Amino acid sequence: MTDKLTGAAGRQYVADAIRHALRSGDLVPGQRLVENDLAESYGATRGAVREALQDLAAEEIVEIIPRRGARVRAVSVEEAIQITECRSVLEQLCARKAAERADGEQRAELSRIGTDMRQAVADGAWDAYSALNQRLHELVVEASGQEVARRHLERLNGPMVRFQFRLALRPGRPAQSLPQHLAIIDAVVGGDAPAAARAAAAHLDDVIDQLRASADPAPTRTPPRP
């Protein structure tokens, strides 16, 4: 019999698996998270599951209720908008700094991401677009060298996974967000810090507009990240 995941590795695996389940829609706001069930599903010890839930509670993805256990925390549209407003300030800072500080290798990777994103939209390859989108945001923050902003963005993005899921399901969303992402890439690669900040702001302003319209029921298919 294979040993169950435990310790730091098990804790990280379970936390990542729960985040993925939220992005894919397998877990929904308000859903109970039962330690025994999660341990069985993810092949981890209950201790690793308990620690993962504590980590996710610290990120405000999960809420732990005394004597009732854990459940996925529900985030209102208004809270999601406020989170995105905060995220916008930090992403503008990171885009500006990335335009100033990115090295040649990082700029080359950003250019490749832009090319691949265009192709993914042309091919309707939404999973590929989602992965490229995530890498783009990560690379801009990485290139900025702004570690404090990175830590805050990680915390802010946690409760947003459901809304990222819903927004990405909106018809035509990848084609709509593509030029916004390309504008960020062009400005960072070109070393134009003010333009990079403006492009990041425009993208997040659009996300906020989409959030305001997100109360409508969304279709059910696996989406890319917005």
From TrEMBL:
Which residues belong to any copy of the HTH gntR-type domain? 8-75
- PANTHER family tied to this protein: GLUCONATE OPERON TRANSCRIPTIONAL REPRESSOR (PTHR43537:SF24), TRANSCRIPTIONAL REGULATOR, GNTR FAMILY (PTHR43537)
Keywords recorded for this protein, A-Z: DNA-binding, Transcription, Transcription regulation
UniProt cross-references to SMART domains, sorted A to Z: FCD, HTH_GNTR
User: Is this entry keyworded Transit peptide?
Assistant: no
Instruction: Quote one Gene Ontology molecular function term.
Output: DNA-binding transcription factor activity
Q: What is this protein called?
A: GntR family transcriptional regulator
